[in-house]
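User:
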Amino acid sequence: MSKPVVLHLGDDIKWNHALYKQLQDNFHIVRSYSMAREEFKQSLKTKKFGDFVAIYRPFWNTGAACTESVADAAIWLILSTYRLFSWSSQAARSLSVSSFKDANRNIAATTYNPRNSILGIIGLGKIGYLVAQKAKAALGMKIVYNDIRRIPEDIEKTVDAVYYPKLEDMLAIADCAVVATPFGGEKVLSAASFQHFKPGSRIVNVARGKLIDEPALVEALESGRLFAAGLDVHYDEPVVNRKLAGMRNVEILSHTAGASVDSHVGFERLGIENILSFFETGKALTPVNIHWMENNTSKL
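Assistant: Predicted structure:
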């Protein structure tokens, strides 16, 4: 009996060679390598790759594989919004003696430590939960969160998290809000949302840039409604908002929160493990949108 076919897209394996050998032992691997989108679509229509049962791509941005890296970056951005490391860094890199002295002399009068302040997390999934663990353990922050559903109470207790069903209520008491929820096609923080933020609070986004109304964010920072922001992602990336880039109370990154060798090793590994697990047990390790699978006969 012939082995089922797995379509391997893109690059060769770089790290998980032994695990990939297990995939080869159980499946017939067909490669597409690099091809233009239209050529790939035509190849699918003509069944050039055969009747494959799964698609594998070594670099596939699966959240579970980059959770640690994104959570670490969130902690950096949280710290930056409290301590204004962006201001200090920009002053030092400017090579301007006056800018250096300005930062050196004046930052202390406006910055704070995060200990005992309230961290509000929008989306307490894998990344949000790890951010909560790190922020509580390392920074001594108190955790509140908003999500479409409340997580089990025993998990809440591990980080002493308090659930807020209404986002507006959470924003009103949070000293710093972290956006860690998937993008579902609509903004989570609209222009009206910023009216609910606690005056002088902070915002961090390690999710998607389009979750936040960017002009409203700029206005909230300019008016002082928000004290600072830490952004890994941007509304029109790779184009960065010029006003945000010029603010010394805004730390900005190039959508690199999840970018690490560890994440890439994890992407490569998790894709293989999901395929192996599904065909061995009928269950994927990290299924996506499983709540949409309404057919009770589905193997998912």
